[in-house]
Amino acid sequence: MFFTLSIIGFVALVLLLSLYHRSRVLSFLPLRLVALLPSNIQLPHQLRPYVLLSTFESQRDAGMSSTAFDLEANLAGDSRLGLDERGAEEVRSIMQTQGVTFDQARLIRHKQILARNGIDPTGMPLDSKAITHL
């Protein structure tokens, strides 16, 4: 009797904790299962299904190509449908706000990503505990 009650209590506790921390629990599920969930459940942005917003051609026409990053040369053999939309939007906004070229905007975005991760523009870690030479 006590064993059965303790098992039921443990299962109830696990269910309540998983309900409370559902965004963390959902991150461990395969995307196929997450896609089956009802639409009223708020998913973290990492779990939202990818929605194609543009193609390589439209991104090339929007100025998201250069000699160093030539989209047209790779259109024929590439099975992907377009660039990462979030990254492309960040580069596009940098180009508009700072008035720089596509390559310069990509470099600025790359340096911002490095800075967010504690790395200086030369690629060296900013952490004083990091071992950079022996």
Give the topology, please:
Elements: H1 2-20, H2 22-26, H3 31-35, H4 56-61, H5 71-74, H6 85-98, H7 102-116
Helix pairs in contact: 6-7
Largest sheet: none
% residues in beta strands: under 5%
Would you tell me the structural class of the helices and strands? mainly alpha
Helix coverage percent:
40-55%
Distance between the termini: 63 Å
What is the total tally of β strands?
Answer: 0
Helix count equals 7
Determine the mean pLDDT: 75
Radius of gyration using CA atoms only = 23 Å
Number of domains: 2
Which regions are unreliable across 5 or more consecutive residues at pLDDT < 50?
none
List the secondary-structure elements in sequence, H or E: HHHHHHH
- Global morphology: extended
How would you characterize this protein structure?
The chain has 134 residues and is mostly helical. The chain folds into 2 domains: 2-35; 56-116, no CATH class. The protein is 51% helix and 0% strand. It has helices at residues 2-20, 22-26, 31-35, 56-61, 71-74, 85-98, 102-116.
Please supply descriptive tags for the structure shown above:
single chain; 134 residues; mainly alpha; 2 domains; 7 helices; extended; signal; DUF2015
Short description:
It holds the Pfam family DUF2015. This protein has 134 residues and is mainly alpha-helical. 51% of the residues lie in helices and 0% in strands.
